[in-house]
Amino acid sequence: MARVVILKTGSTYPSIRASLGDFQDWFKRALPEGLGVEVVNVAAGESPGQPQDWAGVIVTGSPAMVTERADWSEATAAWLAQAVAQSIPVLGVCYGHQLLAHALGGQVDYHPAGRESGTWEVQLLPAADQDALFGGMPSSFPVHLTHRQSVLQLPEGAVRLAANTFEPHQAFRVGSCAWGVQFHPEFTAEIMRAYLDVQRPDLEKEGQDASQLLAAVTDAPAATALLARFGRLVLEGLKT
Hints:
Blueprint: E1 2-8, H1 14-20, H2 23-30, E2 35-41, E3 56-59, H3 71-85, E4 90-93, H4 95-103, E5 107-110, E6 116-124, E7 140-147, E8 149-153, E9 159-163, E10 171-174, E11 178-181, H5 189-205, H6 210-215, H7 221-239
Parallel strand pairs: 1-2, 1-3, 3-4, 4-11
Antiparallel strand pairs: 5-8, 6-7, 6-9, 9-10, 10-11
Helix pairs in contact: 3-4
């Protein structure tokens, strides 16, 4: 069985965790059958062993910031660089997307326009047409987002795959099989609404209309399908 590790880089808000579960739960339910999925809490100091121990790697979001350069985060970045060098399939999500870029020499910092939260459209770029993960997807689709930091500069040689008007680096690939996505394919509409509810005071302080953002939340099936697509790539890679 193909072994996939979920590198857990933090936990969701306590109130959301109590009612809807945590990051790893949301990823697991969207991945295809046939994968042996294990969770390693790198933020708590757990070690994933060697990259070659795994057929695929998923890196979760986090309440932490990549620019804090926590010891566990920097160690995970070094580990991810090894995984990419060994052509092990990697999917970094939100913090994981930023950490992957940082690991490979990209620049991560606070987005100059502030927070992006809610359900927004992203557009695929021409390079996505021939991409192993994004190829064949709709040219534009809704995604769930919540982030304050971004990949401000991609690593050298990275291929930009998706963008929107707020965020030019919504998705990228480096090498043949390592991807970062700023959005959250593991989120459901219910989870996105729960985030906006918790964030409402901060959003209002920042001049954003939380009620309008809540009203705009929709399902994001194309984004969620990326997790199944990634899982199938891992399974197919095992057979070749």
